[in-house]
Specification:
Elements: H1 3-11, E1 18-19, H2 30-34, H3 52-73, E2 77-79, H4 87-101, E3 106-110, H5 123-132, H6 134-158, E4 163-166, E5 171-172, E6 175-176, H7 180-186, H8 188-200, E7 204-208, H9 217-222, E8 227-230, H10 239-246, E9 251-254, H11 258-263, H12 266-280, E10 286-287, H13 300-313, E11 315-316
Parallel strand pairs: 2-3, 3-4, 4-7, 7-8, 8-9, 9-10
Antiparallel strand pairs: 1-11, 5-6
Helix pairs in contact: 3-4, 5-6, 6-8, 12-13
Length: 321
Amino acid sequence: MTPRERFISALELKPIPGRVPHFELVFFLTMEAFGKVHPSHRSYRQWDQMTDEERQYHREDIADIHINTALRYEHSAIFLHPNPSSEDEAMRLIDIVRDKTDNEFFLMMHGDATYGIPSGTNMTEWVARLVEKPDEVKDEAARRVDNALARGERFAQHGGIDGWALCSDYCFNTGPFLRPEWFAEFVTPYLKRLIAGYRNLDQYVIKHTDGNIMPILDQLVDANPHALHSLDPQGDVDIAEVKRLYGDKVCLIGNVNCGMLTTGTDEECIESARYAIQSGMPGGGYVFSTSNCIFTGMRLERYELILDVWRKEGNYSFSQN
């Protein structure tokens, strides 16, 4: 099986032999690993002044960084960061990566359209708008979903993309930014329609959100994504409990404590990785991952430390239970 096929099997809750699939939503340590700035940290303000040859050089370099990251760290999926971020450039990047890898990896991009946590500068005004103009807020939510699905259809027609990571964050460490009954009114119906629309296009959906999702976990699962990411232990999300409740309905991705990788001991990092593996693996439907991403400032050796745990302990027998 290719890494892509293994990743899809996990999303579909199918048993697979061998090592548990692995990916990271973002791997920002490209300077430490390859001596190159991450694609999303680059500025292309002079893009329009470049020759076609110069632009193609940058496209190829961005594709190579994504591919080399997946190859070195055994990722089954690649979250693409087109830069510039126009649809045309995103489609070109998809084509380049597919051509270079012969369809080896699952390819995804950001595709959320639902309301996430407002910024601190306008949070009060945004919440007041929910109370004062709820119909206006819902109309906007519907338009956002319409636009996202129209974009998804264009990418489906182009081909090459396997799915979407929905990256609107809903929760703080203490709980959702909207109480569950408000979340059910202003977010869940639109999340369900967005996911159903992507599924109708034969595209997979991974719903990402940090923080404590437990008060809205039932709503997230009911929206019917293929997977939930990141199962944040810093938000008191226990992957074993989520597995017990919904492991037969949704693939689980994440739960290795990102904060621990920065501030904890080696032993604590190893234990966090081991707990995620042991709790997520039984019965399939699990992808090994941190609880957010490999972010700037994390020590690369800490990431490599948890990968050693995964390589040694994250392996199914052929007769997977």
